[in-house]
Design brief:
Largest sheet: 10 strands, antiparallel
Oligomer: single chain
Structural class: mainly beta
Strand content: over 45%
Mean pLDDT: 93
Low-confidence stretches: none
Helix content: under 10%
Distance between the termini: 33 Å
Strand order of the largest sheet: 1-2-3-4-5-6-7-8-9-10
Length: about 140
């Protein structure tokens, strides 16, 4: 529910067998011409995410994103920053890094209309003894 510049949403589930709400989340999003900001309260009120996205001409229209998330039950905070660079109309490169040292990147190429080839990788910069993760995806749509 909302307008072109502001939106609010909520989700809930109620289990009649146990007589309790099993899920409830809420979110608010503000949209400006070149940026978006959102706040999401999730996990039955146990977590909150605040994010900001800004489109940059220097990245060929790709966005720069920042997100702060907090889990109240464990008192854990996570700060994540990321960006996306549009190489050409069919190819995008994305990267993100969080304060726990997790670095991820991907290259996505539109092979044909609505069909994508994605190559991704991730590793922990604070523990270089751990093996990095690599992924490959091919999405084909007629």
């Amino acid at each position: 529910m909302g307008t072109p510049s502001i939106a609010f949403g909520a989700e809930t589930s109620y289990s009649t067998s146990v007589g309790k709400f099993t899920k409830y989340n809420a979110g608010l999003c503000l949209k400006m011409p070149s940026s978006n900001a959102s706040v999401i309260l999730g996990d039955k009120g146990d977590s909150m995410k605040v994010s900001y996205l800004h489109q940059l001409d220097r990245l060929n229209g790709g966005p720069v994103v920042g997100e702060i998330s907090r889990r109240f039950s464990t008192n854990e905070n996570t700060l994540t920053v990321g960006c996306s660079y549009v190489v050409d109309p069919q190819t995008v490169v994305k990267a993100k890094l969080n304060n726990h040292g997790n670095l991820g990147a991907l290259l996505q190429h539109e092979v044909t209309r609505k069909s994508f080839l994605t190559i991704s990788g991730a590793f922990e910069t604070k523990d270089l003894d751990k093996s990095p993760k690599f992924g490959f995806s091919l999405l084909l749509k007629p």
